[in-house]
Every structure is written in C-alpha cells, then in structure tokens.
Amino acid sequence: MDAQLKRGLLDVCVLAAIKGEDSYGYRIIKDLKPYIALSESTLYTVLKRLENAGMLTVRTAEHDGRLRKYYRITDVGLRRLEDFKNEWKEVISIYQYVAEGGA
Fold this sequence. Notes:
The chain is of the alpha+beta class. It has four helices and two strands. Strands 1-2 form a two-stranded antiparallel ribbon. A hairpin with a 2-residue loop joins β1 (about 55-65) and β2. The chain starts with a helix and ends with a helix.
C-alpha cells in the first residue's frame, strides 16, 4: 500500500478509536487489531502527529501505580473524521473505476 495513503488511514483509524472515549496506547492497539496491524512505535508516532495537528489532547493519570497517557479527540479531530467520510466516497468511486478496468 502507498505510504501516504496508509499514513492517512492510520490517522483516521486512531481518531476513530478514541472518538467514543479517552483511551491509551495499549488499548488503542487492541481496539484496532481486528482491522489493522499497528506496532507501538508506529502508534506513538501517529499520536504525536495528531497531537501536533491539534486533533487530540493528552493528559497523564496514575493507573496501578504508574503514569499512563490518555488521549482525547478534539473538535479538529472530529472534523477530520467527518472530512474523511466524505473523501472516502470519492475513493470508493475511483476504486470501482479501476476494478472494472477503466473506461
């Protein structure tokens, strides 16, 4: 898969995984496992990119005597998910065109 396409898909997958409630790294990987393989190093790169883009916020809280980072989607992140849903319709149309052999 094209690296840029995969990068964009990873971003929206992570945003979707934390849309319903705050989450943390291990849980995000577990939630996404049925859909996409994601290593910890890749996930934390994606999370940092999304944080820098203002699509999520991070808070630290103690859990079982250890500090854990929790991620929350922002309004910017929610808008990105909605934009993706609209863009995906166009991607499906292109896929169908290619799959059917073009013109």
